[in-house]
Amino acid sequence: MTDNRVLDAAARDAAYDLKASYFFCVDTQQWQKLRALFTADARFEGFAFEGEGPDAFVRGVAGLLTGARSVHQGSLPRFRAQSDSLVRARWSMQDYLTWPPGSVSFRGNSAPDLSGIRGYGYYDEEYRRTPEGWRIAFLRLTRLRIDLLHGPHTEDMSGALSPDLDWLP
After folding, report:
1. What are the pLDDT digits (tens) for 126-155?
2. I want to staple 86 with a disulfide (CB 3.0 to 4.6 A). Which of 7, 39, 40, 82 is the partner?
3. Are 12 and 92 contacting, i.e. CB atoms less than 8 angstroms apart?
4. What is the CA radius of gyration of the chain?
5. CA distance linking residue 91 with residue 79, whole number of Å
6. How does pLDDT run across 19-70, given as a tens digit for each residue?
């Protein structure tokens, strides 16, 4: 592969799988599996919590989502090979997070009825081929818009089937 070339099918499929695993692990709060998606020296930018490295990132996500529900969606990815072992990607993203009113302060915003966010933006990422397979080496979240949600949210899940965490190992 040469710089700024579109990925071959196998590398593209690996990138899709990696990002799908990321979203699934975050939304199902599988923190050990989430940590395994990153290189040991992974870097992070643009998130609502502090800390360097993948362990701090996972702790930050887990802390933000404790007691919350989240839905993350990525679409319209663009991939560019930087070398045979490094790929850059950009994903359009939306996230929807809810928590009990007043229980979370988000980026300095707090109110007794603050109960979530709906966000829109992009993930800029680098994937590195390792002996264990492709891993996320860089993750940056940029935002175009964040809507703060106020008041109670109806989350009636009665009768809804929950995800099978072991369906795809």
Report:
1. 999 999 999 999 999 999 999 999 988 766
2. 82
3. no
4. 17
5. 9
6. 999 999 999 999 999 999 999 999 999 998 888 999 999 999 999 899 999 9
C-alpha distances in angstroms, 158 versus 27, 101, 161? 18, 21, 9
Pairing of strands 38-45, 86-98: unpaired
φ, ψ of residue 39 to 5 degrees: the values are -70, 160
The pLDDT tens digits of the residues spanning 110-129 come to: 888 999 999 999 999 999 99
Question: How big is the chain, counted in residues?
Answer: 169
Q: What angle do CA 21, 59, 110 make, to 5 degrees?
A: 105
What's phi and psi for 16, nearest 5 deg? -60, -45
CA separation for the pair 128, 10 (Å, rounded): 14
Provide the token pair at 18. Answer: 């990696």
pTM of the entire predicted model: 0.90
